[in-house]
Amino acid sequence: MFASLTVYALLALRICTVSAFPAYQSLAGLTRDQLDTVVPTLAYSPPQPLPGPLKDDSSILVYDAAHPYQPLRPGDQRGPCPALNTLASHGYLPRNGVATPVQIINAVQQGTFDFLTLPLIGFNLENSFARFLALSTFLVNGNPITNLMSIGGVTPLTGQNPPAPATVSGLNTHNNCEGDTSMTRADTYYGDNHSFNETRFQNFVRFSNEFGAGKYNYTVAAHLREFLVEESIANNPEFTLVSPRLFTAFGESVFPVNFFIDGRDKSGQLDLGVARSFFQNMTFPRNFYRRDGAVNNVGQDVVTNYYPFTPGYNANGVNSFVVDPTSATLSQPCLRYTNFVNNNIKLLYPNPTGLLLQSLKTNLQYLYEATVAAGDGCTQVFPYGQ
Ligand code: HEM
Ligand SMILES: *[C@@H]1O[C@H](CO)[C@@H](O)[C@H](O)[C@H]1NC(C)=O
Ligand SMILES: *[C@@H]1O[C@H](CO)[C@@H](O)[C@H](O)[C@H]1NC(C)=O
Ligand SMILES: *[C@@H]1O[C@H](CO)[C@@H](O)[C@H](O)[C@H]1NC(C)=O
Ligand SMILES: *[C@@H]1O[C@H](CO)[C@@H](O)[C@H](O)[C@H]1NC(C)=O
Known about the structure:
By secondary structure, the protein is mainly α. It contains twelve helices and seven strands. The strands form three sheets. Strands 4-6-7 form a three-stranded antiparallel beta sheet. A two-stranded antiparallel sheet has the order 1-2. Strands 3-5 form a two-stranded antiparallel ribbon. Helix 6 (198-212) packs across helix 7 (218-235) and helix 7 (218-235) runs antiparallel to helix 8. It is globular, with a radius of gyration of 21 Å. Bound molecules: protoporphyrin IX containing FE and 2-acetamido-2-deoxy-beta-D-glucopyranose (4 copies). The site of one 2-acetamido-2-deoxy-beta-D-glucopyranose has 7 residues, from helix 6. Its cofactor is heme b. InterPro entries: Chloroperoxidase (IPR000028), Chloroperoxidase-like_sf (IPR036851).
């Protein structure tokens, strides 16, 4: 631990200059001389207070003149989330795909103008849900020192990494929120776990034709979710679907209905061309209005009533599904929170010190506050003391 202790003690000086040291390497294992060269190049950016709920959550034109779609430039990051990809491609998030938690929360709901962020109008995702999603992904995949996270893969743009075992590898990282049984992204076992996959989208189309008369709705979501899980159990020897991924898998099944339908259309039936525009092209349909009123994962009960699922994994090749009794189930949000903090975060950051510790504590406090705002009634846990 000598290296990290030294680094984070020195970090407290908050010196920031420029040097040629590659910005994305871990500091673990560097000599004292090397550290003396590197440390002054680190910039600490503390966590910012998180935005609250929207004052105006009405339907608003999102695809406006100020937010044109622009194609990717080399190095721009896009990943498994069609919503964040789209927001970045329209400039509601930084177009390079590297953002702070506050920028992400503002983008998925709607920000009041703030000189630190961009003036933003997003999808009207409910505030406590947005906070939990942004903070839980940030704690695993983001850089607590620079306060930046990639919505795709590893990039030097998030700055110098804290020491391993921290990963800071962006939303593509498997098994936090990214995971198996996505609708339009393949399981990690098949290789590319985050790009749009036409074969999988064709299942989305087939189920919409079969159960939704050519549209995607909650009924289709239920049948497709069952199919995706059963198909992975039967074909993916490394299949796993446990908390925290479990929660995003079932939530995302209804997200297209809740957020991809134009705000002026109250039918609950998503057009497949519109779906493709988000999933594949990362583009708002022309003249798109966001939904009317903030919402979270409503409709998920339609999915779970039809397809109750107990978290588990293939223990021994395909078709060897076993239940994981240690995983939170969908009705145990507090166990999800507790295990996430005590296991996932503690594994990545076993002994943080200095500014790293300070940043983690603040972000964990924000995470807990999101569970309070969601009304979960969880008991707070303090892996690094109070
Ligand atoms: C705090 C903001 C958000 C974060 C950090 C986030 C993160 C993620 C991540 C990591 C995934 C990958 C999960 C997988 O493996 O399938 C994902 C998928 C997805 N997200 Fe988001 N997301 C956010 C907000 C939203 C919003 C507002 C929407 C809808 C407008 C949305 C729609 C989706 C959908 C539909 C998928 C599933 C993709 C698929 O199954 O093919 N997300 N998101
Ligand atoms: C798309 O997903 C399927 C599995 O669902 C996989 O077999 C195939 O290799 C994937 N295609 C690409 C290009 O990754
Ligand atoms: C996800 O996909 C990327 C690139 O396709 C790959 O580099 C990465 O290792 C994958 N993640 C895991 C955990 O397999
Ligand atoms: C989905 O569409 C089908 C076919 O139109 C319809 O029978 C079903 O009630 C719809 N489900 C919902 C939740 O809208
Ligand atoms: C996706 O983009 C391609 C290429 O720009 C375009 O031809 C196609 O119409 C777009 N599809 C949708 C559904 O937006």
